[in-house]
């Protein structure tokens, strides 16, 4: 998820929070486009809307976790909003606790 030379971008790009709507199905075919969507929003505060999600595969959960780690490293807030029960259950079954505020507060 991280690209060399972009970690300082997060500190400079703190503007209005962007919103990323997750699709209904997050399977293997959705993983690469999802990763690209996150990369296109890198450096900006981001709300990830999971209100439509009905199925989640492990590859997309990996992309979400990588995004959370990247945003945290950049010191930019990434939060999960409106997760469906199916979305949360998918993470739970894999032993992953998906926090609504995936990165915590911004670093000073």
Would you spell out the secondary-structure blueprint of this structure?
Layout lengths: L8 H4 L5 E4 L3 E2 L1 H14 L4 E4 L5 E2 L1 H17 L3 E4 L3 H9 L15
Parallel strand pairs: 1-3, 2-4, 3-5
Helix pairs in contact: 2-3
If you had to describe this structure to a student in words, what would you say it looks like?
With 108 residues, the chain is α/β, with parallel strands linked by helices. It has a single domain, classed as STAS domain (Transcription Regulator spoIIAA, 2-Layer Sandwich), CATH 3.30.750. 41% of the residues lie in helices and 15% in strands. It is built from four helices and five strands. The chain has a three-stranded parallel sheet with strand order 1-3-5. The protein has a two-stranded parallel sheet with strand order 2-4. α2 (28-41) packs parallel to α3. The radius of gyration is 13 Å and the shape is globular.
CATH class membership: Alpha Beta
How many strand units? 5
CATH architecture: 2-Layer Sandwich
Could you state the order of secondary-structure elements as H and E?
A: HEEHEEHEH
For this structure, what is the CATH homologous superfamily? STAS domain
Report the uncertain regions: 4-14, 104-108
> How many domain regions?
1
Mind summarizing the main beta sheet?
Answer: 3 strands, parallel
Give the CATH topology: Transcription Regulator spoIIAA
- Report the principal-axis shape: globular
Fraction of residues in β-strands: 5-15%
Strand order of the largest sheet: 1-3-5
- Rounded radius of gyration (Å): 13 Å
The average pLDDT is: 83
Give the terminus-to-terminus CA distance: 23 Å
Number of alpha- plus pi-helical segments: 4
Percent of residues in helical segments?
Answer: 40-55%
Which structural category do the helix and sheet elements fall into? alpha/beta
